[in-house]
Amino acid sequence: MNNGELNEKYKEWDKKTEEILKKYPERGEFKTTWGGETKRLYTPLDVGDYSNIGFPGEYPFTRGVQPTMYRGKLWTMRQYAGFGNAEESNKRYKYLLEQGQSGLSVAFDLPTQIGYDSDDPHSLGEVGKVGVAIDSLSDMETLFDGIPLDKVSTSMTINSTASILLAMYMTVGEKQGVSREKLRGTIQNDILKEYIARGTYIYPPQPSMRIITNIFEFCSKEMPLWNTISISGYHIREAGADAVQEVAFTLADGIEYVKAAIEAGLDPNLFGRRLSFFFASHNDFLEEIAKFRAARRMWAKIMKERFGVTNHSAMRLKFHTQTSGSTLTAQQPDNNIVRVTIQALAAVLGGTQSLHTNSRDEALALPTEESVRIALRTQQIIGYESGVPKTVDPLAGSYYIESLTDSIEKRAFDYIDKIEKMGGMVKAIEAGYVQQEISNRAYEYQQAIESEKQIVVGVNKFTSEEEPLKTTLKVNDDAEKEQIKKLRILKKGRDNEKVENALKRLENVAKSDENIMYPIVDAVKAYATIGEIANVMRKVFGEYKESITL
Amino acid sequence: MIKVMIAKPGLDGHDRGAKVVAKALRDAGMEVIYTGIRQTPEQIAQSAVDEDVDVLGISILSGAHMKLVPKILELLKKMGSNMPVFVGGIIPKEDAKRLKEIGVVEVYGPGTPTSEIAEQVRKFVEHSNA
Predict the structure, then answer these.
(1) What CATH number does domain A69-450 carry, 3.20.20.240, 1.10.1040.10, 3.40.50.2300, 3.40.50.1820?
(2) Model ipTM?
(3) How far apart are CA B112 and CA A504, in angstroms?
(4) CA-CA distances (angstroms) from residue A77 to A273, A353, A466, A472, B108?
């Protein structure tokens, strides 16, 4: 049947269906998360020709970044964890590795992420809460004690202080006898989304971008296996963005980093291979699968067409996925296990390289060990029982999936063009444009829940009176006191002259255009604290002020 | 017109909830001041008093609530203010109970309808003016 004939048949069918609707109307309107129309039926008429789909492992990578995908190796199962002090977190990592987790993912507390020592007044109440407290190399040595850094890959969610934590990780590796060029892992290092959505910025955009390009350069020379950035849509989505906005804003951030690195004289064919991405997997199953495929194709096009990259591995969008925390409900928390399963399955069908599955109790507190185990088992069931990883990109060719993939690509490119016209992502952020777009969407979503246009099971429908989970994790309240005590002992015991010299040199390099990573490594080795190092840079670079939008 | 301040103390950057509640209260006809993230307890108490707001809402999702909220209450008291203070975020049950014992008027967890918050904010203000 050719398209003309098909179109005739489709119209006939549609007409008949409209008749039926008079008697049996549909449940309501059906829309995508960005408010686009979802048709009743998708046919070959919606997908055009298939020539742009290509093959896995080949440009434009719609079907995956490797030719064999999960037939070769399953995705890395990587649960984000960290709380309290370094000893407690070290125990949790060892537990997760024993349970069959294949990589580590470190959560740091907010003072560590924002460059304050545990005894800084700004750190009050925050020490060890959302992650592990790290003040100096000494804590980092404890954190990875007994974990062979040549065997595991480690992802660190760290941004404005990424340079410092990377220097610490590298030094711990050296102390274990693992040289820096063998270390494998990722630092998030994505400052732009901190201004947009996550909030752990320190310095203004310009010096922050300089630090990032310094890290790119340092790693290309010293740590060739390290992923130097994880350009993150996750937090943008969690702040309320829809699927199109998530892709558009993330790739627009990516463009900004590539531009900055090229301006700094780096070769995108080289550093492009060490870029990685991080997305959320939300509730709308099919839309999410299409989103991952669209993002992959778009990035390949951007690198090739816009930046003239010729090396294929520098065009590949490799990504980590986390299931969506904002979809977890405090009500009927066991239902979250089901949500997480659906979201994790979408990530796998979308071709993720690594995955974190959220735990059922995370709308209430940090997860207990039992909840984390169920979350990890969910991935293992998908990996070893569901059959989904047997073939590459199994949903390709579905009229709906392909049509959604095209549609997300088109809409996201429109957004990117708009941002380019505003002068790029830094300008768009400084104007508050991106933040406003996201918070408007978040508010619309909340209104949809309250008007029951959007059903959330257990929250605005199918509610029941039930006791919430009895056990939730309590972070040791003494963590703050203990951490401050350790810090005082450290400061007394180290060679303080050596620290001062290292900090002085850091200040001089910060003021120059030399690479800032080298003096940071020296300061870290002298056991200078995160607060001391960040404060030197605060003095030279200044601090960012949020543009408040409502 | 009821004047509300929505504040984010500490280092927590999760501002989705704070912004959604701020917008909802504004749409419910209140005047809303949103402080932005990373405010110290001192900054929050001082500007709540300076702006002479009727009610203060504090949003925390980082787990620092048991240190930061009591501090803000204490500072307000010192400044002679008895404005009602409510809290939103990821607050475990036993902590919510404790916060109410020390003077917080209500603690809202995930899934709370904003219409419910707006309605209750009106009551807090009526009650404190009575």
Answers:
(1) 3.20.20.240
(2) 0.94
(3) 51
(4) 22, 9, 32, 23, 34
Q: In whole angstroms, what is the distance from residue A277 CA to residue A273 CA?
A: 12
pLDDT tens per residue, range A233-286 = 999 999 999 999 999 999 999 999 999 999 999 999 999 999 999 999 999 999
Give the residue extent of every domain in chain A: 69-450
Q: And the tokens for A381?
A: 């069931």
Mutate: best of B6, B15, B21, B33, partner A, most A CBs <10 A: B15
Taking a C-beta distance cutoff of 8 angstroms, is the pair A515, A218 a contact? Answer: yes
Average pLDDT over residues A63-88: 93
Q: Is B17 left (phi over 0), alpha (psi -120 to 50) or beta?
A: alpha
Q: Which among B15, B22, B63 has the least Cβ separation from residue A130? A: B63
User: Residue A162: which of A236, A95, A257 has the closest Cα?
Assistant: A257
What is the least distance, in Å, from the CA of B83 to any CA of chain A?
A: 23
Name the residue among B75, B77, B107 with its Cα closest to residue B92. Answer: B107
Instruction: Quote the domain boundaries for residue B38.
Output: 3-129
Q: Residue A230: which of A147, A318, A324 has the closest Cα?
A: A318
Answer yes or no: do B10 and A110 touch at CB < 8 A: yes
Overall domain count for chain B: 1
- Look at residue A379 and give its three-state secondary structure: helix
Specify the CATH number for the domain of residue B90: 3.40.50.280
Q: How far apart are CA A431 and CA A436, in angstroms?
A: 9
Phi and psi angles of residue A438, each rounded to the nearest 5 degrees, phi first: -70, -45
Q: How confident is the model at residue A231 (pLDDT cuts 50, 70, 90)?
A: very high
